[in-house]
Amino acid sequence: MNSYILLASGISPIRNGDVHYPFRVDSDFLAWVGMDIEWAILIHDLRSKEQVLFFDEPDEKKRLWESVKWDIDTIRAYGFIGKILPRTELKIYLEWLEWDFHLPEKVITSTEKEYILIREILAGKPISSADRYIIQKRICKPEEDVAKIQKAIQITEKIYNYLLENTQSGMYEYEIEAMIAYQFRLHRGIEAFPSIVASGPNACIIHYTANNRKIENWDLVLIDFGIELDGFGADISRTFAVGEIMNSRQQELYDAVLDVKSFAESTLKPGITRKNWNRGVKEYMFAVCQKLQLPDIEKFTAFTNPYFPYSIGHFLGLDTHDVGDSDIPFMPGMVLTIEPGIHLPIEGIGIRIEDDYLITVSGCKKLS
Questions:
Q1: Quick one: 311 and 258 in the same domain?
Q2: Are 315 and 203 within one domain?
Q3: Overall average pLDDT of the 265-293 stretch
Q4: Neighbour count for residue 360 (Cβ, 10 Å)
Q5: Is the overall model pTM greater than 0.90, yes or no?
Q6: The CATH number of the domain where 337 resides is what?
Q7: Over the range 102-141, which residues count as b (16 or more CB within 10 Å of their CB) and which as e?
Q8: Could you tell me the residue range of the domain that residue 42 belongs to?
């Protein structure tokens, strides 16, 4: 059976009027082609491995009005060796595929992210999800991709040290957010995801992004952020006290989070599934919360624990929450986060500590 993967690179969505958001290429397309080309469609033959790229050469008007990054010569120079055809020939090509092979049971595999045009052409044709091919392609990173992730982590950690030196009580969360954005641009990067700058009780909101509170002395500040370079991003979280050292209660909870993080590191290794790894760490965290005698902890379980309501980590790569399969054993080359946290709204304390790890032959390695 002949199967094809169709990948659309995507377009810049409209923000309002005729203003577009900045373009960010589809991650599956980037994984396959290695280029952030806008308005392109790839057809990949799973049997022959042949590829056809549908892309329109920019005309003079486009070159006058826009910053043109890609043309056919540039695409070739980056190593694409398949056919390159105008997008107007896509419909004819897809119709030719079905006529040429005479296989009524043929499956055209798709990521279900195609343009409306593709969906119209394929209407009534058998389409299945390409998830398993995408996961196989992206779940284990080659050395060059790991190096890109590590570079993003190193820059993010450097920026964190800059923030630590320049954050003062009386500042607003958005001022720290602005410093992050400025540093990202200085390093020719963008946000891998919206930066979280949560001070005081705001750190009890897991994905807090309002970033508008004034930071007071003795506040804890939780920052969850990461730069993206060449499509690959970092994802780290840090929690620190502003103006003074942590008080005894803050330090007690911080040390508890570090304890859980150490346990998670020691159990992250090949052979265990993400599902089972997460289960073991959540049970350990629940025991820690019991030892801390957090309010009403006896009413909950490891999986309903309100003080740690998320999983211990996720796959990381071209997406912050990268593709993966929680039921297959970890293998060398996978990259995951470890991010334990304790969020205690009744005391206005939220702590999360997060780093990124590479699965190795014998265990895991912190990328920094």
A1: yes
A2: yes
A3: 98
A4: 14
A5: yes
A6: 3.90.230.10
A7: eeeeeebbbbebbbeebeebbeeeebeebeebbbeebbbb
A8: 3-138
